[in-house]
């Protein structure tokens, strides 16, 4: 009992919650703020002044001395600049001040953040603007105010602004359509997101000894450990005590910040784990996921761990993803993707389901771009993560529902079946009618869609911006077609339009195994894209179709679209550039020293042996030396090639050309070099290597 109370007390204790506002703000002010949060309406300055005063008081009571406008620039990380509340008085004392103006607007210098060219046309000054729909919180004695980040000209320089705009676009179109269908109570629709977060936890000292992990977040060389994930003994395995202690503290710290983390377990690969929160409004969920990633790293440090959020930290075992569970909910509390008992007759559900299918098919390439990063490219299409081809899994029952719908037949559900467990003592369990297909990139999972392509380090803002806008677009098309039809004929017309849409887009539906080569061939026959890498996918971002979509729904302007294009490409090639330099340095400075020291010792040992025992053979020593010498020759050749090609890459001016060159040449050189180094590493005793091997890094936590 005691435990429950303390968790309840702890939960949200560092958050300026709705409850705190209700208790502290004058009634009319509270009502105004509440309305802003619920309906996304504008907030007046006098209201902001009152909120600021109460926020400051609350923050100071909770130990805060500073405040910061917290935002999410295009680096994918979060940014903050701290200001104290102090204001000096003439008598040498200070008072603590915080005005409404300081709450709603900040003016950080934007010139050192990526802007993809927007900076050249606009002043360096940037603005942060308070987002009242995401609650402020206290961390490290500072009041954190979630904000959007804009250029002097009002262009979005962050991920929050377009996300909020896309939620708005989706709401506008959904409400319009729902009202046309007779759902007149609905005034607003929100996107809900639950993001499952995968990560690795490894020993901190080992992490510090590997330059590749330290500088790039992933290992660039390293022979496989004798054991990988083939025993299937880690997934859902017993939590090791040290890991359990870490997860416990992480839960508590996140709960204090009002982040509803719920599930935790070991994942498939050794040293890999997962955390999942209860879903929230998209905008808050995105902020909370950013905070979660930050806290994961910070708390790992306290427990002697390093937390790796890279998509592919180790070769040969699974990488990490972030499942984006997505649904849409009305202001009347209805989940629009809830099929209910009779999905075949649930026209609202079918309308939204088919609109999502149409949107995903129509804008599959933009969804692919939304999850493209240098790190995630290592994961998509490998036999562990969804392929780079976008398809939708619906499960047998829903597929049958849609088949009947398309043919104009009534669907007869087989109903839920009771499962035979064969043991009397066990409770009766009803089998779910939708199975789970782990290989699908976009799966319907009961009452929501799960987009499984995002990588573990990605801000979930990206995929949701695209998803919301694409769905808003298909909803608007439907509305435009329906509104012309007399009211009494609309029901039939809607069915007809949905049937047509389904026929046009059902090529994207696939219930089979997405990991197979057969699917790759089948997808090609169906005309589905298979955009394997970021440079291959990026040109889709700036097509007329893409610009048309985002500008029509006022989610991104043409300038913002093009600046994002530049930024993504830049971040991609810079990442591989750093990886190439790191690998070269590790091989030259660290690995080769180990190799040379070992071969020197071995040669000396062999000649001494010969001197002492002239008759004894030194075949073993010779054999090892020969093999290592062969590897050494290959290594030098590959290292030179990588060096030269990286130099060539540095000369390329055009961003897309550069990214393509890094992808098709530099990455391949790195692979070739790695393969010889790994081959040699497997023969060198650990004591000669200045960095820990895969076996040690992956299996040292006991
Ligand atoms: P699994 O591991 O089977 O994919 P989990 O239970 O770990 O599923 O995670 C499911 C996630 O989906 C949770 O974060 C949950 O809160 C979220 N979720 C559930 N309902 C919705 C919804 N309506 N909208 C968005 N996310 C949802
Ligand atoms: Mg999942």
Describe the structure.
With 702 residues, the chain is α+β, with helices and mostly antiparallel strands. Strands 9, 10, 11, 12, 13, 14, 15, 18 and 19 form a 9-stranded mixed beta sheet that branches. Helix 7 (160-180) runs parallel beside helix 16 (461-483), helix 13 runs antiparallel to helix 16 (461-483) and helix 16 (461-483) packs across helix 17 (490-505). It is globular, with a radius of gyration of 28 Å. The site of magnesium ion has 3 residues, from loops.
Structure ligands: adenosine-5'-diphosphate, magnesium ion
Q: How many helical stretches?
A: 24
Helicity range of the residues? 40-55%
The profile of the biggest β sheet is: 9 strands, mixed
**Separation of termini?**
32 Å
Shape: globular
């Amino acid at each position: 009992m005691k435990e429950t109370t303390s968790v309840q007390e702890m939960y949200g204790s560092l958050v300026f919650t709705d409850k705190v506002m209700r208790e502290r703000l004058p009634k009319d002010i509270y009502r105004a703020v509440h309305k802003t949060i619920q309906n996304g309406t504008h907030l007046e300055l006098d209201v902001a002044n009152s909120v600021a005063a109460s926020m400051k008081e609350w923050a100071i009571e909770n130990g805060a001395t500073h405040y910061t406008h917290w935002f999410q620039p295009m680096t994918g990380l979060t940014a903050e600049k701290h200001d104290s509340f102090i204001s000096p008085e003439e008598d040498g004392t200070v008072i603590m001040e915080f005005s409404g103006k300081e709450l709603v607007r900040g003016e950080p210098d934007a010139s050192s953040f990526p802007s993809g060219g927007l900076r050249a046309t606009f002043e360096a000054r940037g603005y942060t603007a308070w987002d009242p729909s995401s609650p402020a919180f206290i961390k490290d004695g500072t009041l954190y105010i979630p904000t959007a980040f804009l250029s002097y000209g009002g262009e979005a320089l962050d991920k929050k602004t377009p996300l909020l705009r896309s939620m708005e676009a989706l709401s506008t179109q959904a409400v319009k359509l729902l009202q046309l269908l007779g759902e007149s109570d609905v005034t607003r629709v929100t996107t809900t997101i639950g993001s499952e977060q995968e990560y690795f936890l490894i020993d901190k000292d080992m992490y510090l000894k590997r330059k590749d992990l330290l500088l790039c977040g992933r290992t660039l060389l390293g022979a496989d450990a004798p054991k990988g994930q083939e025993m299937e003994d880690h997934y859902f395995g017993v939590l090791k005590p040290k890991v359990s202690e870490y997860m416990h503290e992480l839960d508590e710290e996140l709960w204090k910040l009002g982040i509803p983390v719920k599930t935790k377990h070991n994942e498939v690969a050794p040293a890999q784990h997962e955390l999942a929160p209860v879903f929230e409004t998209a905008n808050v969920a995105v902020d909370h996921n950013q905070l979660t990633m930050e806290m994961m790293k910070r708390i790992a440090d306290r427990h002697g761990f390093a937390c790796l959020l890279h998509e592919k930290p180790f070769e040969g075992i699974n990488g990490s993803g972030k499942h984006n569970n997505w649904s849409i909910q009305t202001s009347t509390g209805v989940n629009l993707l809830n099929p209910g008992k009779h999905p075949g007759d649930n026209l609202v559900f079918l309308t939204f389901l088919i609109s999502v299918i149409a949107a995903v098919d129509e804008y599959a390439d933009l969804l692919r771009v939304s999850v493209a990063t240098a790190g995630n490219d290592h994961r998509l299409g490998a036999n562990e993560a969804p392929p780079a081809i976008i398809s939708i899994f619906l499960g047998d029952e829903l597929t049958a529902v849609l088949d009947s719908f398309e043919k104009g037949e009534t669907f007869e559900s087989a109903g839920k079946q009771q499962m035979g467990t064969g043991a009397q003592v066990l409770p009766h369990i009803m089998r779910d009618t939708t199975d789970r297909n782990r290989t699908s990139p976009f799966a319907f999972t009961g009452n929501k869609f799960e987009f499984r392509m995002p990588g573990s380090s990605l801000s979930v803002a990206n995929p949701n911006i695209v998803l919301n806008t694409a769905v808003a677009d298909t909803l608007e098309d439907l509305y435009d077609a329906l509104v012309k039809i007399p009211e009494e004929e609309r029901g039939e017309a809607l069915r007809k339009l949905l049937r047509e849409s389904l026929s046009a887009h059902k090529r994207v539906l696939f219930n089979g195994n997405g990991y197979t080569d057969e699917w790759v061939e089948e997808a090609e026959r169906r005309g589905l894209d298979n955009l394997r890498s970021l440079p291959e996918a990026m040109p889709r971002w700036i097509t007329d179709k893409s610009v048309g979509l985002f500008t029509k729904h006022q989610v991104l302007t043409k300038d913002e679209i093009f600046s994002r294009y530049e930024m993504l490409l830049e971040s991609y090639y810079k990442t591989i550039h750093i990886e190439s330099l790191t690998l070269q340095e590790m091989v030259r400075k660290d690995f080769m020293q180990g190799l040379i020291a070992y071969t020197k010792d071995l040669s000396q040992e062999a000649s001494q042996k010969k001197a002492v025992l002239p008759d004894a053979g030194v075949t073993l020593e010779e054999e090892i030396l020969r093999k290592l010498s062969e590897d050494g020759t290959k290594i030098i050749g590959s290292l030179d090639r990588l060096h030269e090609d990286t130099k060539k890459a540095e000369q390329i001016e055009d961003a897309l050309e550069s990214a393509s060159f890094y992808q098709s040449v530099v990455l391949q050189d790195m692979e070739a070099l790695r393969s010889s180094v790994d081959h040699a590493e497997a023969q060198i005793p650990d004591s000669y290597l200045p960095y820990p091997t895969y076996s040690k890094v992956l299996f040292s936590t006991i």
